[in-house]
Amino acid sequence: MRIPRFVMPIFPVVPVILVANVAFAQNYPNKPVRIVTTITGGSQDLTARFIAPGLAESLGQPVIVDNRGGLTSMEMVAKAAPDGYTLLLASGSLWLLQYLRSSVPWDPVRDFAPITLAVTLPNIIAVHPALPVKSVRELIAWAKARPGELNYSSGQAGSSSHLAGELFKSVAGVNILHIPYKGGGPAMLALISGESRVSFPNAGSASAFSQSGKLRALAVASARPSALFPGLPSAADAGLPGYETGATLAIFAPARTPGTIINRLNQEIVRILNRADVKQRLLDSGAEAVAGSPAELAATMKSDAAITGKLIKDVGIRVD
Length: 320
Prior knowledge:
Layout: H1 13-26, E1 33-37, H2 42-59, E2 63-67, H3 71-79, E3 86-91, H4 93-100, E4 112-122, E5 124-127, H5 136-145, E6 151-154, H6 160-172, E7 177-180, H7 184-193, E8 198-199, H8 203-211, E9 216-220, E10 246-254, H9 259-273, H10 276-284, E11 288-289, H11 294-315
Parallel strand pairs: 1-2, 1-3, 6-7, 6-8
Antiparallel strand pairs: 3-10, 4-10, 4-11, 5-8, 5-9
Helix pairs in contact: 2-9, 4-11, 6-11
């Protein structure tokens, strides 16, 4: 059987492409690397700046932190060349905004290559000191005895503290009124002043207020106790198994970035995040290092999208 002549030139192209990709990855990096953040300032900026110096040293190239912020930062990285020189440090909004908005200009699985989880900022269950409860079990019992009487403060719709509050209502089976504020700071002030009775702030930001007695922390919303809040039980230990929530920051590259580059970046960033000095600096800033493999990050995205995505749909939370 004769092979048509127009098909034959296709065969030798494949190995040429493979050789070119291997050669490209072997030469990586030969110019500065950029870490784009989706929020200007705060934990994202600090995390990127804790990682950048160590990564620059190991790669032998400058690593620039680019605080772009907003949806455009995610879209820009999604469309960037898949060459390992443009990375994204993003929160769970990367894979949850598809449930909060009518549309987003990227697909979190199709357009991004996971590199590693970076840090987590777990939420806590906190109450105003005047509320006569000293444990999660007592809070749930008090709320069930007075449905609709309790309220909780949170940042804007779709924020970590908002989702933590709605998840608490779902897992605990209680009816608590939601009072949204413009940010986590005003929501915390509302709790401290007694304007709200319950809130679900990040552990790091609430620690000082707990120590001063301005709020009462009942549990950390994680599977195990957190170094950010020593002595505070996990939600599971406090009687609310399955209640795990918090902000997660992770690092991505554009989709189709060569696997050898992804693995190199993963190894270097994980090594940096596991350094004792970096871990301590992260703790001091209110975050915990949670470095892992690309597969672990992909699994986290899938699980969170399934659980939190369903919650967002069920509650009807929208940000557009």
